[in-house]
Design a protein that fits this description.
Helix content is 20%, strand content 35%. It is α/β, with parallel strands linked by helices. It has a seven-stranded antiparallel beta sheet with strand order 4-3-7-1-2-6-5. A six-stranded mixed beta sheet has the order 10-9-8-11-12-15, with helices on both faces. Strands 13-14 form a two-stranded antiparallel ribbon. β13 (225-228) and β14 form a beta hairpin. The protein binds flavin-adenine dinucleotide (FAD) and FE2/S2 (inorganic) cluster (FES). FE2/S2 (inorganic) cluster binds next to loops.
């Protein structure tokens, strides 16, 4: 285990369904919650009752507060399926903070575009960036069942089935309308690639948070390698946040 990373045994505080197959889990955390920065992730295993899953699973941190952190997760397979059964007091193990962070900006207009569950890391970034920057937050979902009710938080939801096109197809309009200086994005690769291509035409800086299948999560297994313009990079330690120009 590299230095600076913490292992925390924690208990679930709450676990709530927020949209179709999408849950927000709040977990007690006295150490990782204090150290984690926007863009970083944690590795989770969900307790001794689930020992058939040897590998921890990576999740972005969606929010932090005194003594807790939250994860917004989508049901994909075995572990995320079992996570939906977790109740207050159930135990889990977390390792983190892992990976790099989004850049710090000051006095910029920043567009944040999350595709599906890709909105998760952007919300912690938004919480930090809104102190100094003007933000426009876009959440792209395929169907209205996947739309999240954001309450007081200002998020524009783009529903593909209503609009007839993907959220990335609106990048140019947003860049022009709001004089956007930078874009942070997380979601499907084709979505982020399209955003980076349009942003390049307008000289707008892009950072993209990538997902990859991971094993160790801290650079030892090379299981998460992706090809960048400078050769292979490990998503877990060189990323998950990359400059758009490094990739596309
Ligand atoms: C840095 C990082 C941050 C992440 N943050 C979040 C988050 O905030 N919320 C969230 O819901 N998910 C997040 N993920 C994805 C999450 O790790 C996977 O959904 C989870 O590992 C699936 O576990 P499972 O056992 O339920 O599914 P499995 O049974 O392992 O897999 C089910 C299906 O999902 C696919 N899959 C699993 N993991 C990934 C992946 N990383 N990339 C692409 N396809 C995958 C598999 O190929 C398979 O088809 C993140 C991944 C990374 C690398
Ligand atoms: S997950 Fe092992 S090197 Fe990235």
């Amino acid at each position: 285990m590299p230095t600076g990373k913490l292992i925390e045994h924690s208990a679930v505080i709450s676990n709530t369904k927020v949209a179709e197959e999408t849950y927000l889990i709040k977990i007690g955390s006295s150490h990782i919650a204090k150290k984690i920065n926007p863009g970083q992730f944690i590795n989770i295993s969900i307790g001794t009752q689930f020992t058939d899953h040897l590998l921890k699973r990576p999740f972005s941190v969606y929010d932090t507060g005194p003594g807790h952190l939250s994860i917004l997760y989508k049901v994909k397979g075995a572990v995320t399926g079992q996570m939906t059964d977790l109740k207050k007091g159930d135990k889990l193990e977390m390792v983190g903070p892992l990976g790099n962070t989004f850049s710090n900006f000051g006095k910029k207009t920043i567009l944040l575009v999350g595709g599906g569950i890709g909105i998760a890391p952007l919300m912690l970034a938004a919480k930090t960036l809104k102190k100094k920057n003007k933000l426009i937050i876009l959440h792209g979902v395929r169907t209205k069942k996947e739309a999240i009710s954001w309450g007081q938080t200002k998020v524009k939801t783009h529903i593909d089935e209503n609009k007839g096109h993907f959220v990335c197809e609106e990048t140019e309009d947003y860049i022009k309308k709001y004089s956007v200086n930078a874009i942070l994005t997380c979601g499907p690769i084709p979505m982020m690639k399209r955003i980076a291509e349009v942003a390049r035409l307008y000289n707008v800086f892009v950072e993209a948070s990538l997902e990859a299948r991971m094993a160790c999560g801290f650079g030892a297994c090379v299981g998460c390698a992706i090809e960048s313009k400078q050769g292979f990079k490990k998503v877990c330690t060189d990323g998950p946040v990359f400059k758009g120009e490094e990739l596309w």
